[in-house]
From TrEMBL:
Residues 2-246 form the ABC transporter domain. This is ABC-type polar-amino-acid transporter. It catalyses: a polar amino acid(out) + ATP + H2O = a polar amino acid(in) + ADP + phosphate + H(+). One of its GO terms (molecular function) is ATP hydrolysis activity.
Length: 250
């Protein structure tokens, strides 16, 4: 579903991704761990073209992201073509960014109406299903200000799912939440993983990684230091940098 081949990213002089090679199979859940500043957010933003890579190739479901190859030369895709590629990828951020003047239901209906061109009735029926999936059927008519942080984040997940993504990216989805609200969001993500969704999750929740990840990817300073099943990478790390990281966070 995702293949990164020797991906580099520079912000001016700053070399942030230094040759990332990563393969995520359909249905896999990958958890990306690593110290702050190691490039985790940049990597997932490069997967859905929120950032342009500086070198290498990024494929999602076989599609070269952001670029078109013709006679051995690369051309940047149009904004419209990039938006189309991006529409197959759901993204959930630390900050939920719901529209404050819309109810939970209206927030979930908005993109399918605007982007997929669903009728109001179709979008509403589907949005109610997505809200049920995240356990918020009874909050459909509430505004974001009337919902807890955990509930707002679950609405954000429902909103992403309403676009029928093939891949879901999460960037520290629980980091802004009060501790007692973290569990309900992780539970929704576990259910989503169990339903077969392909997911890449940046999180500091090592318990979630152990329990849910098929693959744990440990990054430091723009490189993948170690990747594999949780029992190996978390339970029996081979590299000093990985050992030091888990010694601090566990
Ligand atoms: P992480 O998510 O692992 O904490 P990031 O991907 O956010 O790391 O950041 C990696 C590095 O790239 C950091 O040094 C950060 O300051 C830098 N960086 C991230 N985004 C930008 C940007 N838009 N412009 C310049 N530097 C950036
Ligand atoms: Mg980050």
């Amino acid at each position: 579903m995702v293949q990164a081949i020797d991906v580099h990213k520079f912000f001016d002089e700053l070399h942030v991704l230094k040759g990332i090679n990563l393969t995520i199979e359909r249905g896999e859940v990958a958890v990306l761990l690593g110290p702050s500043g190691s490039g985790k957010s940049t990597l997932i933003r490069c997967i859905n073209e929120l950032e342009q890579i500086s070198a290498g190739r990024m494929y999602v479901d076989g599609d070269l992201m952001g670029l078109r190859e013709e006679n051995g030369r690369l051309y940047r895709l149009s904004d419209k073509a990039i938006a189309k590629q991006r529409s197959r990828i759901g993204m959930v951020f630390q900050r939920f960014n719901l529209f404050p003047h819309m109810t939970a239901l209206e927030n979930v209906m908005e993109a399918p109406r605007q982007v997929l061109g669903m009728t109001k009735a179709e979008a509403e029926a589907d949005a109610r299903e997505q809200l049920e999936r995240v356990g918020l059927s009874d909050r459909a008519d509430h505004y974001p200000s009337q919902l807890s942080g955990g509930q707002q984040q679950r609405v954000a997940i429902a909103r992403a799912l309403a676009m029928k993504p093939e891949l879901m990216l999460f960037d520290e989805p629980t980091s802004a939440l009060d501790p007692e609200l973290v569990g309900e969001v992780l539970q929704v993500m576990k259910d989503l993983a169990a339903s077969g969704m392909t997911m890449i999750v940046v999180t500091h929740e090592v318990g979630f990684a152990r329990e849910v990840a098929d693959k744990v990817v440990f990054m430091d300073d723009g490189v993948i230091v170690e990747a594999g099943v949780p029992a190996d990478v978390i339970g029996n790390p081979q590299e000093d940098r990985t050992r030091e990281f888990f010694a601090k966070v566990l």
